[in-house]
Specification:
Structural class: mainly alpha
Number of helices: 10
Number of domains: 2
CATH class of the largest domain: Mainly Alpha
Helix content: over 70%
Strand content: under 5%
Largest sheet: none
Shape: globular
Oligomer: single chain
CATH topology of the largest domain: Tetracycline Repressor, domain 2
């Protein structure tokens, strides 16, 4: 266990997660190592093992933080809006995801690896944040669409959350991928995070 106050422990955990997030903006999951993350922190690389045993645990902690931030955004929407139409809610939901590209990127590429490479206590902590995001979206549906049946709410959750795993690959395409699709005759239409999220959520809410 790391020595020091709980505040120092949390600060160092956050520094490690921040370093990972910064590297992930320009490097792939496979390229990033514990050594790379350690080089981007203010303390020794070996000290990281006092907080995380694998890079998968660090990425899982980053994903957990992203879910927590998204839930906070959704709670703010509910605090600031007494009522919302279907279009109004869908607009705000789509914008909330537009602000979380890292959430969508990690979800789409490395979710299974992160869970498989993390200790049970880290996985449990992540699942609590993931579960809270589901509860928060459900709370939004309950607040803004009180007449929606329980089955329709469940259908929304169990369609939209799996759908989120595919948002990033459809909205961030490399030139290599674009050229390959053109060469293969694939009729690819670029859509932003906002557009693809809005279209799915609005369709699920119905007329």
């Amino acid at each position: 266990m790391p020595k020091g106050s709980p505040e120092l422990t949390q600060a160092r955990r956050e520094e490690i997660i921040n370093a990972c997030e910064k590297l992930y903006r320009t490097m792939s999951f496979k390229e990033i190592t514990i050594k790379e993350i350690g080089n981007a922190t203010s303390f020794t690389r070996t000290s990281i093992y006092n907080y995380f045993q694998t890079k998968e645990e660090i990425f899982l902690a980053l994903l957990q933080r992203e879910y927590e931030l998204w839930s906070a955004d959704l709670n703010q929407i509910m605090a600031e809006n007494i009522t919302l139409s279907k279009d109004g809610f869908t607009d705000k939901l789509a914008h909330s995801l537009e602000r979380r590209p890292q959430l969508l990127k990690i979800m789409s590429m490395n979710h299974y690896d992160m869970e498989a490479g993390s200790r049970p206590e880290h996985l449990k902590s992540f699942k609590l944040a993931y579960g809270e995001s589901i509860n928060t979206v459900t709370a939004c549906l309950n607040k803004y669409f009180p007449d929606m049946s329980a089955q329709r709410r469940q259908n929304f959750i169990y369609t939209f959350f799996p759908f989120m795993f595919g948002i990033y690959p459809y909205t961030f395409v490399t030139e290599k991928q674009r050229a390959a699709m053109e060469g293969a005759g694939v009729n690819y239409v670029f859509m932003s995070i906002y557009e693809i999220s809005y279209n799915c959520a609005r369709m699920l809410l119905g007329e």
